[in-house]
Amino acid sequence: MKKRRLFFRIIGGLVLIFIIVTVFNALLVKSKQPSPKPTDVVIDEGKAVEHLSQAITFKTVSYQDRSKFDFTEFTKFISFLEESYPGVHDHLELEKINEYALIYKWKGSDSSKNPIGLTSHYDVVPVLDGTEGNWEHTPFSGTVENGKIWGRGTLDDKIGVIGILEAVEFLVNDGFKPARDVYIMFGFDEEIGGDKGALEIVNTLKERGITFDFVLDEGGAIVENMVPGVDQPVGVVGISEKGSATAELSIEGSGGHSSQPKNQTNIGRIASAIAKLEDTQFTGDLRGPGEDLFEYVAPEMSFTMKYVFANKIIFEPIIEQILLQQPATAALIRTTIAPTIFQAGEQYNALPEKATAIINHRLMPGDSLEEVKTFIEDTIEDDDIKVTITGSEASKVSSINGWEFKSIQQAARNVYNNAVIAPYLMFAGSDAKHYDSISKNTYRFLPVQITSEDLNRMHGTNEHISKDNFIQAIKFYAEIIKESNQ
Question: Out of 156, 190, 367, 463, which one is annotated catalytic?
């Protein structure tokens, strides 16, 4: 009996120590949000809204087939910018790359400092044939109604172009002079990869030996109800973007009549391979930018959630299992598998001699193309299926510890006082990846407060932005230039 009581006392003591230590860890968690310095930027809202409305009317559409580009629209758009922003064009040097990519240089008082760069793009995706009638206002009308601006580009990404230029025009007219050089860079083919726009801007600046302390592009936004346990809207700043790779699985063999099939046909073997991949999946691992996100939002959570994340070393397997339950959070912690194309057969009663499947992967930072290929081959266990993989790995991970990220965070808080601003891993691609080679840091953030429905509208039907959101974006761009003035 004495030994049993002693045993339970020891167990009870250990449990008590565990509770004390873990609760203490939770109590030590402090907010990583800077105190807001409410912005004093005052914008001529009517003129700004009119400018964005006009910008939408130019059909600067990017097509995969470049021969379809209507460059007269691009030329007219550039002329519109020159007419609309006299202060910008009087005080900043403008250079055109490949005729349509734009570099504005705002010379600072101390050019020995590394410059900063703000970038965006003014090309837009096409409107899907047959959907034009589903728009409440025609896609290139720029209609302003009920406090909203309508049209293709209001979210992606003429709002960035016009927002930046409105901010610079305000600062120039207000007498502001930057301490370091500021580059404003606009691509014209981001929607199809940016090879003629952003990439050529980068090549030009690289030849001149330009190195940025940071470049800020579009990317994450301020989203409500994004993180469980956080009541405030969360603004996510991409510090890296996942790689994008295409894996092709193909098999060839004898076809024959469908009346005498083998136990496993070419289609069946490819289908079996895909099923194995979807059943297995890459291992989830809360690391890198995904881990950084929760370190920044955990202090703003309820105590229960704060307790869990403050003791991540203990609860990490549970956290990862929870995150893997939803596609959006699963993509934050693992390389993804998305079969997108299946090709096989031409005749209903003939077995195909070849079957091919295309799988899109979004790679976590640190995962290589070769590792993805090896994972596929080891998982499908079929030596007759040929696996080829092409694409790009994740971009480098930018710092969250220096003044660069802290300036973005402060600028966002100055405008969105109640928002939690945190780093994260961006799933989609942007022009930012091109700037990695000439910038110490590249960040991805669109300074607007949006809903999940807005995200679906970016390349979809009824794209629009509220006037208030647009004005707040302008103020952010002015604030980030001021906050970087060091």
Answer: 190
